[in-house]
Design a protein that fits this description.
- By secondary structure, this protein is α/β, with parallel strands linked by helices.
- The protein has 3 domains: 4-56, Orthogonal Bundle (434 Repressor (Amino-terminal Domain)), CATH 1.10.260; 68-165 and 298-321, 3-Layer(aba) Sandwich (Rossmann fold), CATH 3.40.50; 167-296, 3-Layer(aba) Sandwich (Rossmann fold), CATH 3.40.50.2300.
- It contains 13 helices and 12 strands.
- Strands 2-1-3-4-5-11 form a 6-stranded parallel sheet, with helices on both faces. A 6-stranded mixed sheet has the order 7-6-8-9-10-12, with helices on both faces.
- The longest helix has 16 residues, at 81-96.
- The radius of gyration is 25 Å and the shape is elongated.
- It starts with a helix and ends in a 10-residue tail after the last strand.
- It holds the Pfam family LacI.
- GO terms for molecular function: DNA-binding transcription factor activity; transcription cis-regulatory region binding.
- InterPro entries: HTH_LacI, LacI/GalR-like_sensor, Lambda_DNA-bd_dom_sf, Peripla_BP_I.
């Protein structure tokens, strides 16, 4: 049977004529960026569009508005579980607004970060979300100076629009949990010094210890990368120099590495050693000893980062999402 789809591309005008409404009505109903109407007319328009095989050309539509319908996302690497989860959450949030997210990686190198940013801009993205984390990063200031629409995810420089978890509160919750279980000899393994998340979580831990009348000595904090291998090496350093009853690792990969180091040192996580991680990656609850960790709501952070790209001037530009503690078998009460 001969159909419009057989004869060529179905247009908005074809749908409008078949549905008995105006072209502007069809355009409004089928605009994925707008709230989905359930009116009789909207339902009829969508039904007709499906029957005719209409497919919205987002690229052409965007060009007419001077946009491409894409958002660029910059992350250090996608081999990092947290960065992969963050990008997936940003992609979902962008899609909910009718945009498509594309990703570029830059490692931890500022020059690579600038180069990757220019590549995304050359491809005409409508905005940028930076999920990089260097405290000495000059890129946000450069983007502000150029008037380029952008937001930061998982960190803030205090000026550019930012959506992040409350790292100070997360570190506080982790160590407060250990203190409440009776631990007093607590070591901390955190990320690199250039990462705002690493420093924020240490400050939260320091606050929890101070409330209990305990000081956080410098030798009890080990700065590392955010990978499993870095966690193993940091754990070895901790267990070689001391015998803490508990360790707070500032991300779950580090915690997994510390688990390995603890095994090599003859320590038993969940028995004579308590361990808390951070982020609550999917693997955390599925380990042989399920990991107590701080849950970070990536979808909320991503939605905030995308919203901030399009927020009108004058709205709050820094949004912090509260994390929550997820107690599991890797932490236990100190036996007196």
């Amino acid at each position: 049977m001969d159909t419009m789809a057989d004869r060529g591309s179905v247009t908005l005008r074809d749908v409008a004529e078949a549905a008995g409404v105006s072209v502007s009505t069809v355009s409004r109903v089928l605009d994925e960026r707008a709230p989905r109407s359930q009116s009789a007319t909207a339902v009829r328009v969508r039904q007709v569009a499906d029957e005719l095989g209409y497919r919205r050309n987002a690229y052409a539509s965007g060009l007419r508005r001077g946009q491409t319908g894409t958002i660029g996302v910059l992350v250090p690497r996608l081999t990092d579980t947290v960065m992969a989860l963050m990008f997936e959450a940003l992609e979902r949030a962008a899609r909910a607004r009718g945009y498509f997210a594309v990703v570029a990686t830059c490692g931890d190198d500022p020059e690579s970060e600038r180069s990757s940013t220019e590549i995304l801009l050359e491809r005409g993205v409508d905005g940028l979300v930076l999920a990089t984390a260097r405290l000495d990063d000059e890129l946000p200031a450069a983007l502000r100076a150029r008037g380029i629409r952008h937001s930061l995810a998982l960190r803030t420089d205090g000026v550019s629009p930012s959506s992040l978890g409350d790292d100070d509160m997360g570190g506080y919750l982790a160590v407060r949990h250990l203190v409440d279980l009776g631990h007093r000899d607590i070591a901390i393994v955190t990320g690199p010094r250039f990462a705002s998340s690493a420093n924020g979580r240490v400050e939260g831990a320091r606050r929890a210890l101070a409330e209990a009348g305990l000081a956080l000595d410098a030798e009890r904090v080990v700065y590392a990368g955010y990978g499993i291998d870095e966690g193993v090496e940091a754990g070895r350093a901790v267990f070689t120099s001391s015998r803490p009853t508990a360790v707070f690792a500032a991300n779950d990969n580090l915690a997994i590495g510390v688990m390995r180091a603890a095994h090599l040192a003859g320590r038993v996580v969940g028995d004579d050693l308590s361990l808390v991680g951070y982020n609550d990656i999917p693997l955390a609850s599925r380990l042989p000893v399920p990991l107590t960790t701080v849950h970070v709501p990536f979808d909320q952070i991503a939605a905030g980062a995308i919203d901030l790209l399009f927020a009108p001037p004058g709205e709050a530009t820094i949004r912090k999402v509260l994390p929550t503690l997820m107690p599991r078998a890797s932490t236990t009460r100190v036996v007196e």
